[in-house]
Design goal:
The protein is of the alpha+beta class. It has a single domain, classed as 3-Layer(bba) Sandwich (YerB-like fold). Helices cover about 20% and strands about 30% of the residues. Strands 3, 4, 5, 6, 7, 10, 16, 19, 20, 21 and 22 form an eleven-stranded mixed sheet that branches. The radius of gyration is 27 Å and the shape is globular. About 35% of the residues are buried.
Amino acid sequence: MQWGKRCTILLLILSLITILGTAGCRRGGPDGDNSQQSEEGELDDELQGEKTGYYAPLTGEWMEEEAPTKRRPVAVVIDNDPTFSSQSGLDKAAWIYEVPVEGGITRFLALYHHYDALVLGPVRSLRPYFLDRALEFGAAISHIGYSPQAKKDITELGAISLNEFTFPNLYWRTVDKKMPHNLYTNTENLFGELEERGLDKINPGWEIDFIQEEDLDGVPGDYADKVRIHYHLGVVEYRYSTVEGVYKRFFRDRPHVDGETGEQLFAANVIIQHTERPRVLDSEGRLEFKTIGSGQGRVLQKGRDYEAMWEKKSREGWTRFSHPDGSLITLLPGNTWVQVVPEGTRVEVE
């Protein structure tokens, strides 16, 4: 009988220890272990702020795979003739430059790095001022043909050219558009060619800094919900979305959408680079843009706008965007659109 009472007491003690232990685990332990989850299922601040993955230096994002963040970028010259439909693949570019060319239109130079695009294009011919921008990223350049000066520059500057004339297997033409607006490629073909030739790796010297997460609310400048750039071919506009925290892109008062996804293009950072008026070179109307030197600019981020300066010391040199006091501007994580705006082009910031 006495032995039975002892067993009962022992069982009660063991049950009490189990209950207390379980309650302690729910609280994260007596010392408040921050590695545990709260009763509401939310991770504590320390774990929420921890970055995982591999850093992508052109956009400040974190990626699941390391290899794409280490590869040499590819710059693709992309059409912007308003007589044909939308471009494909601009939504996957890390940096995009829009620059005027002959005929009163613009073209894009899109830099691809850690995101892949199944379709890119339409691919167009190369100009020297596109080459200058590709070289500062150490990028190979995808194009079909070139101006006479750009052809000379490729050899003299040692650029990695993925010209369709030389590498037709990297490109294809569609039947739904007329030449020359129907040539396309993709990142698999372009990066694959670089890897096969042993040119896919790079030791970058990019002077880019990104805003830390805790400083996102400290973007300088005045409120700016939109900017309108009056290019000859039509007005390019960016409108800030407070919901998504990015600038949505419009062209001729219509959303500028990707030709593959139908989704509207956007920018985390918009840089306006003011330049001298270009000089007309020949009877074809080809332009000579001054890329070396310095000038003024503007930066739009998080619904704000502030003044900036730019400086480029050589054709291969990095274009440094800085505050008026000389300190480097910091970018928001995400993509960057650079609008090259020649003297005499009207810009409205609201």
